[in-house]
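Lecture notes, part 5. Sequence design as translation. It can be helpful to think of inverse folding as translation between two languages: the language of shapes and the language of residues. The source text, in structure tokens, appears below.
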């Protein structure tokens, strides 16, 4: 989440509640004449996942929300389940505060599992009220991790006063609680000091044995704060940390928001990766990534520039997009990056359908790594597909092709009213090794990597695999690709 006026998005125009038409898990009881009851579990149908969900948006149907009403997810796998913790939001309703919890065995079929808190945490409320503010009636941007046998849930609570916010910690012996409020990790105040907003936490247990929190939104970029790994609180009470990432300015004003950090360590690449959200959450929200050899930085972008430099950094690996036959998706950031315990990484984020950007859906995508060590996200949501090699004869044909370009629009909600959707164009991969009708543009395929050499001198190197076409009826299996070009621009493809 970004500045305090984000709280207005937690309440949108009230809707009539229609009769429920979506079913979660469907279990059929088949009783034979011998009274022997067996249960047949019907496979989950991804066609039941729709872009909009007015019929189950009401709080009365929270048990049916599944992947709906999800914003700022934090996902980890504990045992057989993936658990998702997310901001208190709901379409067309005033939701209860407490941090929403969901769980899933496959990252596709999500079931609602309750809340972390039954009310706003007392210590966060006390800090804000004693500082002259009124706390928002919602908790933002949680982060979950497990340390030993203890589950640690970090949350953000902001207020009606700009930058008057707290990040607190709750602990439990189970991923669904009950939870105990432990204390405040870091606070921020509207006092004229140079500091970021104390929201949007993420925590890393580094290879050097230290534990760090990365946090922040607007104001002064992304900060890093050393934690006490025993308590999960700040190693030095009252410390705010230091800035490690910022973005560019136009005429003295930010080019847009910077927030929602996520940091992971890739053991194969032996590098730390910092994912950051840029821009306004309802429209241009997009995801950047930088990398480092040390958890404290410096983190470098695709061009080798320190992420703490006052420029916009690349690559942008997810951004607002529109494939053929669909209205498009916007607000595609504030990510959670995690693995499945089998070396496959995933990236999850909120996404808003452009037909009505007040709906908020959970998208989970596979994450791949380029040969030179950069993460790239699948252009389509995950739905059980394997990483099986795609045959050479499946490459030729007509594709949708998206180059995730970016246009700077300085400002926030008032200025960034357009999502700037990156719209698909047709790409024809010919059997004779050329592209479209341009004999100067060629392609080669050494599975799983496809290389397109454009006649203008650009080169796309993309990872090819099977995936579901979520823009088509029945969501059929097709071939997709994702990668970067030689300029660090992300490119996506989907065979039509």
């Amino acid at each position: 989440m970004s500045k305090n006026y984000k709280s207005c998005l937690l309440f949108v125009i009230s809707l009539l509640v229609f009769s429920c038409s979506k079913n979660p898990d469907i279990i059929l009881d088949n009783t034979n004449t011998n009274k022997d009851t067996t249960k047949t579990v019907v496979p989950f149908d991804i066609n039941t996942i729709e872009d909009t969900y007015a019929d189950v948006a009401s709080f009365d149907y929270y048990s049916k929300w599944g992947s709906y009403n999800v914003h700022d997810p934090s996902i980890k796998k504990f045992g057989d389940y993936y658990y998702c913790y997310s901001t208190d939001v709901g379409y067309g309703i005033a939701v209860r505060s407490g941090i929403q919890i969901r769980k899933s065995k496959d990252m596709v079929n999500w079931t609602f599992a309750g809340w972390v808190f039954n009310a706003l945490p007392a210590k966060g409320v006390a800090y804000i009220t004693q500082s002259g503010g009124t706390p928002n009636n919602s908790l933002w941007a949680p982060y979950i991790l497990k340390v030993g046998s203890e589950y640690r849930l970090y949350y953000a609570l902001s207020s009606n006063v700009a930058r008057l916010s707290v990040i607190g910690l709750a602990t439990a012996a189970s991923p669904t609680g009950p939870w105990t409020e432990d204390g405040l990790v870091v606070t921020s105040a509207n006092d004229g000091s140079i500091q970021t907003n104390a929201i949007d936490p993420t925590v890393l247990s580094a290879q050097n044995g230290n534990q760090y929190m990365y946090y922040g939104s607007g104001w002064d970029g992304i900060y890093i704060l050393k934690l006490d790994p025993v308590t999960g609180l700040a190693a030095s009470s009252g410390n705010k940390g230091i800035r490690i990432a910022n973005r560019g300015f136009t005429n003295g004003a930010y080019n847009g928001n910077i927030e929602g950090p996520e940091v992971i360590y890739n053991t194969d690449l032996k590098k730390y990766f910092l994912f950051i959200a840029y821009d306004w959450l309802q429209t241009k929200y997009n995801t950047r990534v930088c990398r480092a050899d040390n958890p404290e930085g410096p983190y470098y972008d695709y061009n080798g520039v320190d992420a703490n430099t006052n420029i916009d950094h690349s690559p942008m690996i997810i951004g607002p997009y529109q494939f053929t036959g669909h209205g498009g998706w916007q607000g595609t950031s504030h990510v959670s990056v995690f693995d499945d315990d089998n070396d496959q990484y995933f990236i999850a984020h909120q996404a808003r359908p452009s037909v009505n950007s007040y709906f908020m859906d959970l998208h989970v995508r596979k994450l791949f790594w380029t040969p030179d060590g950069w993460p790239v996200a699948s252009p389509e949501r995950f739905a059980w597909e394997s990483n099986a090699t795609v045959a050479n004869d499946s490459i030729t044909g007509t594709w949708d092709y998206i180059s995730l370009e970016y246009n700077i629009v300085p400002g926030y909600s008032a200025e960034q009213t357009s999502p700037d959707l990156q719209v698909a164009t047709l790409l024809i991969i010919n059997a004779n090794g050329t592209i479209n009708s341009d004999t100067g543009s060629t392609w080669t395929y050494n599975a799983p990597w496809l290389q397109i050499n454009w006649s203008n001198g650009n080169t796309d190197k993309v990872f090819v695999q099977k995936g579901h076409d979520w823009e088509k009826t029945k969501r059929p299996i097709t071939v997709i690709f994702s990668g970067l070009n030689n300029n660090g621009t992300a490119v996506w493809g989907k065979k039509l």
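The translated text above is only one of many valid answers, since several sequences can fold into similar shapes. Residues 20 and 143 are 31 Å apart (CA to CA).
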